[in-house]
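Take a record:
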Amino acid sequence: MRILRHYVGLPTIVLALAEGALFLCGLWALGFIGKCEACYFDDVVDLEVYEALLVTGTFLLIVAATGLYNRDAFVDFRVFAQRFVLASQMVLLPTVAVVGILKSAADLPFGWYIGILTVAIAVFFAAIFAIRVLLFWTLNLDLLKRRVVILGQGTLADTVSNFVSNEGSSHLRCVGRLAQGRNVVGGNTVSLGNIVARARPFARPAPYARLAESLHAEEIIVATDDRRGLPVEELLRCRLQGIQVTDYLSFWEREAGQIDIDHVGAGWLAFADGFRLNLPRRSVKRVIDVVVSLLGLVLAAPLLAIAAAFIKLDSRGPVFFTQERVGLDGKVFKILKLRSMRVDAEHDGVPRWASNGDDRVTRVGRVIRKTRIDEIPQVINVLKGDMSFIGPRPERPYFVEQIRKEIPFYDLRHRVRPGITGWAQVNYQYGASMEDAKRKLAYDLYYVKNNDSLLDAAILVQTVRVVLFGHGSR
């Protein structure tokens, strides 16, 4: 489903609603909401409905922040198990705190109050675990997958086929691949990838529509390297029969959350929906940036003081350092960070990307880079207007000059303010090469095209997962 401008998987929405409802029912069954005749705990403090919804929303945010609603948690049980353990630990304390703030437990023994809520959450997570195990089993059932047909031969068709067979296997199933041309339906036997389907010679004008209908296809993905001679009339017939027809670039944007810069053209970018950077949107985002920055600076002050003390004790040099970065409309500004490298990290004056196990990073630097504490001073850049909380990460001018010569449309990422965190940061590893820069641009262009409050909120929540698991840090 597309909510505002961001694509959200329907299974994710359904699962989140189901788990939220289960959590809400658990609160009601234990007597935390109103009066429950079947409840054995008559002394439990009641919650108003809106308060219970707030507690449930807090629970869902924590679960989402650990990445339990991400695609990889649906298809890899090890990833799910790791995040499940962390989520169960993170939910208990905030839930107890929120309930305690909403309703004082002064009339109840504190230990008993915490104990019953702990048991409730433990039982609830056991139920969630059972649901997810059932989900892993049912995801392999073809009956629940969206049936797609790939139209085309060549690189694009192979890319879509590999994606559906591997990464997209949780909700997609390829039931056929069609070549462009009449030879597809020229005989009695039509080869469809792993399927060999018996079919009569189709009469024009709708062989594709009839074939797709016979396969019970729900969507045709047009992934042709050459669009000359594309059977547009037959594809229109498919749409009239209720079969969705999607071009490769739109499919890739929807499913991969990125734009394929190797195959996109200026025409597609110019006419595609999105890229609406209007004044109201920018004004609202700026207000949010200022408010959150001021609040974040106050809350992070003790942590910054502790980090500064360890940096001074660990190595010689200043606590903070500045570095030139390219920002909005290509304007160069100085970014502020906690120093995580030696003062002579670039003694020869040649900028270099950070690498795994970089020997220029100090001992304290490894910790603050892993936990992203070194990025906290950038809230000052946000207050000054050089940056936003959410946006493409700003790159150094030296690298920008190199990248823009190699990668088309790179300067489009400079049409929005750079951010402390962004869509590329929560979906891809740390960039340390030209190929990494290209992969990250694919995500950055998706953000520039589809930026809205929902996507910003999703990035902010996913940043928690990146920090907790140290993804992409070097």
Summary: Residues 143-256 form a domain with the Rossmann fold fold (CATH 3.40.50.20).
